Amino acid sequence: MDTKIPDTLNTVRSLEKEQFEVLYSISKALNAAVYKKNLFEETLDIIIRVIDAERALFVMYDEPNTKFSIVAARNVKQETIDDLSTFSSGILQKVIAEKRPIIYHDVQSAPGISQFQSVLIHQIKSVLGVPVFRQGKIAGLILADSQMNRKAFNEENLYFLDFFSNLVSLALDRISQIEELIDENTILKNQLQTVQKIPGLIGQSPAIKQLVQMIERVARTDTTVLLLGESGTGKDLAARAIHELSERRQKPYLAQFCGSIPDSLLESELFGYKKGAFTGAVADKKGLFEVASSGTFFLDEIADISIALQAKLLRVLQNKEIIRLGDTQSIKIDTRIITATNKDLKILTKEGKFREDLFYRLNVFPIYLPPLRERTGDIPLLAEHFILRYFGKNITVHPETMKRLNGYQWPGNIRQLENVIQRAAILCDGDILLPEHIIIEEADGMGSFAGTLEDFERMILMRRLKEFNGNRTQTAKSLGVSVRWIQLKLKEIDSPDD
Ligand SMILES: Nc1ncnc2c1ncn2[C@@H]1O[C@H](COP(=O)(O)OP(=O)(O)OP(=O)(O)O)[C@@H](O)[C@H]1O
Ligand SMILES: [Mg+2]
What we know:
This protein is α/β, with parallel strands linked by helices. It is built from 19 helices and 16 strands. It has helices at residues 8-13, 17-32, 36-51, 89-98, 117-121, 155-196, 206-219, 235-244, 263-271, 288-291, 307-319, 345-350, 356-362, 379-391, 399-407, 413-427, 453-467, 472-479, 483-494, and strands at 55-62, 67-75, 102-104, 124-134, 137-147, 225-228, 253-257, 272-273, 285-286, 296-300, 321-323, 330-332, 336-341, 365-368, 396-397, 432-433. It has a five-stranded antiparallel β-sheet, with helices on both faces. Strands 7-10-13-6-14 form a five-stranded parallel β-sheet. Strands 8-9 form a two-stranded antiparallel sheet. It starts with 7 loop residues before the first helix and ends with a helix. Magnesium ion binds at residues 235-236, 300.
């Protein structure tokens, strides 16, 4: 026989002082739970204790799909029960169908229940089933049973369980929200960690942080990326990082420098060829686009490719297929394309040197790598990083040395800083990096320097003197010569015919 539950007010009235005390301790326990799993187990242990049940079961119910999922099952010994087939799903279904708490006093003789095998096998005497409502719908169920050797459940037990299930429902609401927040927090923290994990990318400046965020975001997609920035700002490094942080990280990463390479050679590198396509094509050869299919292909210095190759590249981006030189059949490819340039492609398009349609295809997601002079705050970190790499240990940087590094404009950006530290590692024997170990080659004008060795000597001397405010001792030290040598040179410069 099952019994209908009276209205809430009467239910509360029928509770005894002792039961109120139990409810108070229960509400405290429920409030303390932070994870759903703890809540479910806590709930079941309380039920078993308070109504003197043999076992208890917590089931979540997916109403739209009428599916149960068991989230916790405990016995009187506070053990977790793994063999869940021993609980009667027939009783669960009855509670759901009737949407109300149900008690069976004498299960063995209850029509429609006694035939459930589990009831018979487990010698179940009475069963309590209570729905847990959330937003008016059954979200879960609690089931408790007692065996033949125990006392049968009574109506009070049912009221208690019904009351209790309302508390559980409130606690469930609270915990679900907390758990969602905790999960979200874990995901965000994890994302931050991957940001810091970008291999070898050093910097804490806002500009670098923003760059790292962009790389991280775009890495998760298959979008074509255009890396922009002066020479030495880290475009190669960024391209690699995008690949490493993408789903394609296990697949090939290929890079091709496109500057100052004869057109036909570059074309056969990129697209491959068929045997006999040209003299020297003695066998079929795959192009890099094909080899990098399913991976990432980085085309460096894209501004330098010829108009003819630009047209071919456009076709690759539009159709996602390539044709090997000398072939007629196209091959589908799924290569993620990253390109880079230190030139202004917009100006080149205006000058007719770069196809506008290709520019738009490449410029889907431009990432600008800031020059070092715009993020001087990163210089000490970078210096430390390169010191460790080239000295093989940490060494003290003299404040004057740091002042010099911080004050310089770094036209060659990070690569130049790296070169300077690498050079310093050769010059510095001690444990302190002194200003004289820092030899900065003057990048401006050097590339087109057409003078004699003597001219060069003079130029370096004059610049260095200027750098040390005319102090000959310091200049001599930094150049590794004697003060006497400097005096002689200056004399020569003053009166060249002597
Ligand atoms: N943020 C960074 N942290 C540490 N090292 C860096 C960073 N950015 C660049 N580097 C280092 O500086 C050097 C130059 O970087 P990279 O080759 O990526 O520059 P680039 O922009 O491709 O230059 P180019 O235009 O001349 O090809 C490399 O050795 C690279 O490892
Ligand atoms: Mg590069």
